[in-house]
Amino acid sequence: MTPFAHRGGARHPDLEGLENTLAAFRHAVALGYRHLETDVHVTRDGVLLAFHDARLDRVTDLTGAIADLTYDEVRAARVGGSEPVPTLEELVAAFPGASFNIDIKSRRAAAPLARFIVERGLQERVMVGSFSPAALREFRRVAGPEVPTSAHPVEVAAFLLAPTGHLARRLTGGRPQALQVPVRHGRVLVVTRRFVEKAHEAGVEVHVWTVDDAEEIRRLHHLGVDGIFTDRTDVLRDTLTELGLWTTEEDS
C-alpha cells in the first residue's frame, strides 16, 4: 500500500492553511512519507508552481490568476500568511529521496512540465495525471512513454465499463499506469472489488483519493487498492501501522 501525502497533508492539525508549502511537505517527510502529491500551474513568464488553485485568493494573502501573474508577483504571496508559494524546482530539490504525484491543473502547464521532468531525468520519481484529457494528451506527447501517467476520466470510464481488464487496457492504449480515483463519483460507486480486479488484470494500480477516515482506509485495503491519498497524514500512517503496512525507506 502506497501512502500519498495529499498537498503535503492539507488537513493535518499542525498544518492549518499551509497546503502545498515546503513546510507541509517537510512535515509529511518527517512522518515518514516518501510519496508526495502536489499540483502544478504555470506563471505568465513560464515558472512552474506547486499550487492547486488557478487563483491565489483562497489560500494566500494576495489575489489574482496565476496565469496572469509573473513569478516575481507570485513570490510576494504568503500561504496561510507565512509560507511562500514553492516552485516545482524548489520542491523537487528539497526532497531528493521523495517521489512526486503531480496533477496538471492547467493545459498551459502540460508541455513545460513534460520538459521539466525529461530534462532533469525525473522519470522514475514522478507519476503525472490530470482531470483534463487534453492536458494529459499534450503532456504525454511531449514527455514520451517513459514518464508514467495515471488515467484521465475517459480512461477511467473504460475500466468501469469494459467487461475485462484486458479489454480496458486495449481501449486505453496501455498508457495509464494507475487509476487515481475517488471512492464515488456522484451516485456512481467507482472503487469496487471488481474495479480493482480489472485494473490488476491490466497491470494497472488503483490509488484512491482523498481518504481521511481510518475505517474507510481499512475497507479499501481489504478491497486490494494499491495506494491512498490523504489530507490526514497522521490518520493514514497510524492505520497502516496498525495493519502492518507502514514502511519507510529506513525500514526497507
TrEMBL record:
GO terms (BP aspect): lipid metabolic process
PANTHER family xrefs: GLYCEROPHOSPHORYL DIESTER PHOSPHODIESTERASE, GP-PDE DOMAIN-CONTAINING PROTEIN
Chain ranges of the GP-PDE domain: 1-240
Chain ranges passing through the membrane: none
Gene3D superfamilies membership: Phosphatidylinositol (PI) phosphodiesterase
Coiled-coil residue spans: none
InterPro entries for this protein: GP_PDE_dom (IPR030395), PLC-like_Pdiesterase_TIM-brl (IPR017946)
Identification of the protein by name: Glycerophosphodiester phosphodiesterase
GO-annotated molecular function: phosphoric diester hydrolase activity
